[in-house]
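Sequence design from tokenized structure. All designs in this work follow the same two-part layout: the structure record, then the generated sequence. An example of the structure record is given first.
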């Protein structure tokens, strides 16, 4: 058996030592519970780890990642994470973070047959259909992919806004805010897409739930 995986265990020991140097009580404090203020919905891509790129420590971000940072309303895994984050942890901000050059979005833009994966990619293709006129008009393929990535993030922010138990929270107060961010692999910087929301007012009527009585 190749032993490359042991690098990770060794890395863990080095990391633990460094953390204790900065804060000798760090693990003791964290072991009593978590109270993160943020939920991160990101891409599974190994180059976009939530805590590292935001310079945040364990304990600060509740995380869900999948191919192309999708919010699919039949995804029990994702919805359970969102439910726990919103209803129990009471996170104040949900960040949908995509990234330029996303392989999932690129695959969805092509006509290539990816076998089983097509079932996941279909949800991303639906985003293309919603914005077909705008995307078809972008001639440069890289620029079209960049824009597709941004529109996909925006649509996932919309999809979160359509979740009934998030709308319930908005009936009670201002939180959670939902944000759409995009990360550039080329320079390591995050950009806020300016699509933040904390209400359902801009959604089509059919997605706006009445308050539960
Ligand atoms: Co990706």
């Amino acid at each position: 058996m190749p032993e490359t995986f042991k690098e990770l265990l060794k890395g863990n020991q080095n990391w633990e030592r460094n953390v204790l140097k900065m804060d000798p009580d760090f693990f003791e404090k964290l072991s009593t519970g978590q109270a993160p203020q943020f939920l991160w919905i990101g891409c599974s891509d190994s180059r976009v780890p939530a805590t590292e790129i935001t310079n945040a420590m364990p304990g600060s971000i509740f995380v869900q990642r999948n191919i192309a940072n999708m919010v699919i309303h039949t995804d029990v895994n994702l919805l359970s994470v969102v439910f726990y984050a919103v209803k129990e942890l009471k996170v104040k901000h949900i960040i949908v973070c995509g990234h330029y050059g996303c392989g999932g979005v690129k695959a969805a833009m092509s006509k290539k047959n990816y076998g089983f994966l097509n079932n996941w990619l279909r949800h991303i293709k639906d985003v293309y259909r919603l914005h077909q006129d705008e995307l078809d008009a972008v001639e440069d393929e890289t620029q079209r992919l960049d824009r597709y990535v941004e529109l996909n993030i925006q649509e996932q922010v919309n999809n979160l806004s359509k979740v009934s138990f998030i709308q319930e929270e908005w009936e009670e107060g201002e939180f959670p805010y939902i944000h759409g961010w995009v990360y550039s692999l080329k320079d390591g910087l995050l950009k806020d897409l300016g699509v933040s929301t904390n209400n359902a007012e801009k959604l089509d009527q059919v997605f706006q739930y009445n308050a539960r009585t």
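The chain has a mean pLDDT of 97. We note this feature because it recurs in several other targets discussed in the main text.
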